[in-house]
């Protein structure tokens, strides 16, 4: 697939499951990186649109209704119109982040560990991820994976509260676990332990990077945390 067709398809539908697009991304790291960034931006916009609107605030309600209409029409638009709409929505992300309160980074983490999001990430990654592939992406964070951390089924860049991060999905004994690598100087606000609904998370500093682990089983999260402390270097 040529570069122009690839980009047009991604702009029109960042979460496309077109086999030709998936193959082109797997064969070309630059295409994969471009797709990761567009998909991450799209996820930020979706999260922004899902922020609950405070009661008795008509202006915010009107804004929310407009965003819902945008979501319904987005897939029907030509690629160049979809791209223009995405740029316009990106300009509003800063405002919507303010509405989210002080937990922007944690909220983004939870948005990226939804089953729907992870299924698409796993499908895009193909048949598992090798340590060599992980280390190619780790170079962005001046880090290295020197030991096995488990069955990694996906490893892609994403954006957490506008911070470029690496999101790995690991198959545990009781389900999927997410591990994020974030530059430490941009993740000060995140607590060491946090939770939402049935999900539990932990974060810890490892030299110049913050490691964030989230899953639905506390014991597996704790086990992966200990493994990660020995497996990663920065």
TrEMBL record:
Pfam families: DUF3379 (PF11859). The keyword Transmembrane applies. The keyword Membrane applies. Keywords: Membrane, Transmembrane, Transmembrane helix. InterPro entries: DUF3379. The chain crosses the membrane at residues 79-100. This is DUF3379 family protein. It comes from Brumicola blandensis.
């Amino acid at each position: 697939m040529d570069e122009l067709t690839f980009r047009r398809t991604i702009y029109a539908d960042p979460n496309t499951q077109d086999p030709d697009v998936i193959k082109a991304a797997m064969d070309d790291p630059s295409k994969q990186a471009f797709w990761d960034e567009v998909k991450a931006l799209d996820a930020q916009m979706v999260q922004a649109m899902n922020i609950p609107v405070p009661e008795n605030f008509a202006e915010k309600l009107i804004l929310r209704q407009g965003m819902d209409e945008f979501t319904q029409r987005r897939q029907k638009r030509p690629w160049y119109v979809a791209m223009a709409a995405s740029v316009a929505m990106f300009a509003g992300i800063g405002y919507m982040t303010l509405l989210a309160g002080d937990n922007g980074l944690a909220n983004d983490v939870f948005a990226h560990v939804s089953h729907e999001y992870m299924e698409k990430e796993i499908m895009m990654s193909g048949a598992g991820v090798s340590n060599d592939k992980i280390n190619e992406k780790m170079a962005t964070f001046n880090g290295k994976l020197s030991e096995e951390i488990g069955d990694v089924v996906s490893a892609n860049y994403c954006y957490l509260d506008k911070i470029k991060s690496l999101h790995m999905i690991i198959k545990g004994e009781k389900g999927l676990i997410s591990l994020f690598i974030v530059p430490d100087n941009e993740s000060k606000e995140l607590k060491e332990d946090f939770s939402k609904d049935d999900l539990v998370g932990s974060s810890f500093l490892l030299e110049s990077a913050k490691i964030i682990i989230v899953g639905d089983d506390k014991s597996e999260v704790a086990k992966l945390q200990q493994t990660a402390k020995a497996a990663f270097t920065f």
